[in-house]
Design a protein that fits this description.
Elements: E1 2-7, E2 10-13, E3 18-26, E4 31-39, E5 46-52, E6 58-60, E7 68-73, E8 78-83, E9 92-100, E10 106-109, E11 113-118
Parallel strand pairs: 2-11
Antiparallel strand pairs: 1-3, 3-8, 4-5, 4-9, 5-6, 7-8, 9-10, 9-11
């Protein structure tokens, strides 16, 4: 199994920045990709960005392109999400999740971290 722990959430004003971190432990060699998801009250969970573990290929939701940057540090087994130019619509609980080699979908999830953007 892979264990994930998020950190870095908080309250920020619109236009500000936050950096989220996701620390992975356990069978990290089995990770194919790590994604950041978010879920706002009353809304479905959506994927924000993902990065492949071995070669660092990234992909972003249209709503965050140009504002968010996902990166990884394989030596530290961490994946970060740098969030700039935050808007109130970015308010949500943010989760990181791991997709493992040979397994469909994201099956290992962190506990989530709250991000609140005030107007």
């Amino acid at each position: 199994q892979v264990q994930l722990v998020e950190s870095g959430g908080g309250l920020v004003q619109a236009g500000g920045s936050l950096r989220l971190s996701c620390a992975a432990s356990g069978r990290t060699y089995s990770i194919r990709a790590v994604g950041w998801f978010r879920q706002a009250p009353g809304k479905e969970r959506e994927i924000v960005a993902y990065i492949t573990w071995s070669d660092g290929i990234t992909s972003y939701a249209d709503s965050v392109k140009g504002r968010f940057t996902i990166s990884r540090d394989n030596a530290e087994n961490t994946v970060s999400l740098q969030m700039n130019s935050l808007i109130p619509e970015d308010t949500a609980v943010y989760y990181c999740a791991a997709q493992r080699l040979g397994v469909q979908g994201y099956n290992n999830w962190g506990q989530g971290t709250q991000v609140t953007v005030s107007s």
